[in-house]
What we know:
It holds the Pfam family Cellulose_synt. Helices cover 51% and strands 9% of the residues. The protein is built from 26 helices and 14 strands. The protein has helices spanning 29-55, 63-83, 97-103, 126-137, 157-180, 187-195, 206-230, 235-240, 242-245, 253-256, 304-319, 339-347, 379-390, 406-409, 434-441, 468-478, 501-519, 535-545, 550-567, 580-600, 605-634, 651-658, 669-694, 699-721, 723-731, 740-760, and strands at residues 4-6, 22-27, 91-95, 112-118, 146-152, 263-268, 288-293, 324-329, 333-334, 356-360, 364-365, 402-405, 482-485, 493-495.
Amino acid sequence: xxxxxxxxxxxxxxxxxxxxxxxxxxxxxxxxxxxxxxxxxxxxxxxxxxxxxxxxxxxxxxxxxxxxxxxxxxxxxxxxxxxxxxxxxxxxxxxxxxxxxxxxxxxxxxxxxxxxxxxxxxxxxxxxxxxxxxxxxxxxxxxxxxxxxxxxxxxxxxxxxxxxxxxxxxxxxxxxxxxxxxxxxxxxxxxxxxxxxxxxxxxxxxxxxxxxxxxxxxxxxxxxxxxxxxxxxxxxxxxxxxxxxxxxxxxxxxxxxxxxxxxxxxxxxxxxxxxxxxxxxxxxxxxxxxxxxxxxxxxxxxxxxxxxxxxxxxxxxxxxxxxxxxxxxxxxxxxxxxxxxxxxxxxxxxxxxxxxxxxxxxxxxxxxxxxxxxxxxxxxxxxxxxxxxxxxxxxxxxxxxxxxxxxxxxxxxxxxxxxxxxxxxxxxxxxxxxxxxxxxxxxxxxxxxxxxxxxxxxxxxxxxxxxxxxxxxxxxxxxxxxxxxxxxxxxxxxxxxxxxxxxxxxxxxxxxxxxxxxxxxxxxxxxxxxxxxxxxxxxxxxxxxxxxxxxxxxxxxxxxxxxxxxxxxxxxxxxxxxxxxxxxxxxxxxxxxxxxxxxxxxxxxxxxxxxxxxxxxxxxxxxxxxxxxxxxxxxxxxxxxxxxxxxxxxxxxxxxxxxxxxxxxxxxxxxxxxxxxxxxxxxxxxxxxxxxxxxxxxxxxxxxxxxxxxxxxxxxxxxxxxxxxxxxxxxxxxxxxxxxxxxxxxxxxxxxxxxxxxxxx
Length: 761
């Protein structure tokens, strides 16, 4: 935190003048010094806590309890040290698109291929995918140098139908966007913003055209959603695109998703501008648009999103063969039409582009509530930690909103003496017809082009890990390549954050499980990356990859101190003891600094509190299941899976989400754990308060506060942060309340544990 000061750009020594296309800024020297001094004082407090645990064992507690507290505090302290790498020397990038335009006119710009992945039309609605695709087709970029590919891993006829409708509507929409320079260029987002007068763009005739193009969009949306709800494609579409839909004739739709040939259709051929006839926008030159459903067979593992991405890389090499690739999730629409030009400032800078393999942009969301009830915005990661990674060689690849060099993804090794990208090696095939291109590109998405080849090992995204993006980025960086992070003032992409607690917990379970698998794999940042990447970057990879083991220390601190509080046995120094100061300072400093970071990143105080609650829930549930599943898989007792996060919610759920009411509503083993721990802490707090009240002359209150003040504060904080859960258990009557079965299980379990501990232990 502090003001940014630009690095001094050294004048070029070559005769040819050099104009940088992007700049790198850092915090002021004073700000960095203060931050490092503060971190040093916190570390001193942590070391004092460790020293206390080693030298002051409590004879009234069992040794394993004291040792458990020691190991938990060792973990918390060492993990905190890892997180400081992301705060040591953050850098902030800014671009000069005007300089790019002056040095590289549109006709000399490289091609860009955009990959969008979807996997299930019931969870990722086709109209959502259509909005993402249309926002990309409408980019402010030469159409003959832009191609958009949709990978439909669900092989859904409804997704194909939606794409055919999108291709038909694209002329009207892109024409409207270009004439009035509108932002954003997702129709749904733009019309919603226009209704609230928050959209950008306008001018003569804007209102009339807005009404007309919105009517076309609503009609298209109605056709797509009606087809999806009715479960059949309209007859006129079947007749018009008989060959396209012939793949689905007479097939069992469920088994078809796992057993079908490659389906490939070039919906818009953007290689050359069409003749100007002025009819319904058809004279507009549009980018290439391609639909792909790669071949799947039950006997072959399809490798989830990594397999889909690799198929797109191969197919696109035949159709458009752009040197720059952008991949996005299907709900992540473009919010800024100039993003491609921003990205090219990094890849086309003459002096600083030779070692840049990929450029990562932050994932932002347009449906996050004001106080971000589920902590979905990941503000501190995007605004603090990733800029910190950038100073050590670049951030990790996080699967969406990332620009890649095609040659690097295809396995090119880094050469310090010459790794610049030669644009002249790439170009489109202008000789073959669309039918010929489809025929020649289709085999590249077949299983034979992937199975038992270098794809997934030496080429493309890595196979065998739920977070294929992270392990792929790490392997690229270990070859010597760098990545960069760019957080533009206007969000480049906006997606959909989870709108229920189960969605949030399942999503983080998948992320943390995949990250922990990387630690235990041969690509572990602990040993494989040693000497290949900087120590700071290695520390931050470990910080994320060790999310899952966090559950052990957090579970210990969430349960044991509260039970011993109920028993009347202290685990921390007395309030009157000087040893309480390291505990108080380390905790207070850590959380006050966390709050300051969150506020400086654009969050609110209540949003920070909500994030602390989500932090607790993730570490006691998501990470616990991820840790156990990873260990079982390592022992050969389980398999990796891939869970898609739902992108839509019903009206009741959406209404509660907008009101920032936590959504439980379903029975889940995760909720059993959450509710049981919450009840255990509530019973412990009630029990100790009851003991104080029945004690004579207030002696009990003074004794408890002095001897177990820190335990009392910890238990009280856990009860306070679980208030929404208690509301869901005891007070709420809506469908989002805690299920009765979970409530009964939690109450009985917590009561049995507390009673047994007090009377039998």
